[in-house]
Amino acid sequence: MKVVANSTPLIELSKIKRLDLLRDVYGSIIIPEEVYTEVVIDGAGKPGAAAVKEAQWILCRSVIDKNQVLILHNRTLLDLGECGAIVLAQEIDAEQVIIDDRVARRVAIARGLPIIGTIGVLLVAKTRHIIPDVKSILDNLRDHGTRISQRLYRQTLTNAGE
User: Fold this and answer.
1) Taking the model in full, what pTM does it have?
2) What is the pLDDT of residue 12?
3) Dihedrals phi, psi of 31, to nearest 5 degrees
C-alpha cells in the first residue's frame, strides 16, 4: 500500500514515542523531501527529528514536478511539507495520505486523494488489534500538547467503542 504522510502525524506520534504505529499499520510510509526537511533538518533537536531520520521504514522521495509544489503553496498558503505530500501523493497515485491540517485535508480531498488523520490511524490500529485502546493514546497526545477538540475526542471514543 502506497501511503504518503505529512509532518504533523510524524511529529505528534513521536512526541509520545508511538511513531511505530504508522509502521505497524502500514508497513512503510513515504514522505516527500519537503516533509523530511521540515521534520529532520529544520526540526533538528525537536520531537520527530531523530526518530524519522532513523526509521528505515520511512521512505523519502522527491516530487517529480517541484513547480507544482510551489504553485500549490502560492495558491493555498499551505506549508511546503503539506504541498509536497499532496503533490507526491498524486504523482505516485497513493492509496492514502496521512494529513491533519483541516485546510490541507480539504485541498487533498478536492484533488481526489483519500485522506486519513492521526486519529484515524489510531482507530485503524485498534480495529487491527495493534493497540488495545484509543483513549490512552488520545490522552497522551493531549498531555503532550496535541490539540484535539472535545467534540472530536468524544466522537473518536464513540467510534472506537470506548
Assistant:
1) 0.94
2) 96
3) -125, 145
Task: Give residue-wise pLDDT tens across range 90-142.
Answer: 999 999 999 999 999 999 999 999 999 999 999 999 999 999 999 999 999 99
Select from 52, 50, 8 the least CA-distant residue to 148: 8
Looking at the DSSP assignment, which residues form a beta bridge with residue 97?
4, 115
Name the residue ranges covered by the structural domains of the chain: 3-118, 120-160
**Cα 47 from Cα 16, distance rounded (Å):** 9
Cell 507526491 locates to: 88
The CATH number fitting domain 3-118, selected from 3.30.1020.10, 3.50.50.60, 3.50.4.10, 3.40.50.1010: 3.40.50.1010
Closest to 89 measured CA to CA, from 10, 101, 81: 81
Contact between residue 22 and residue 5 where contact means Cβ atoms under 8 Å apart: yes
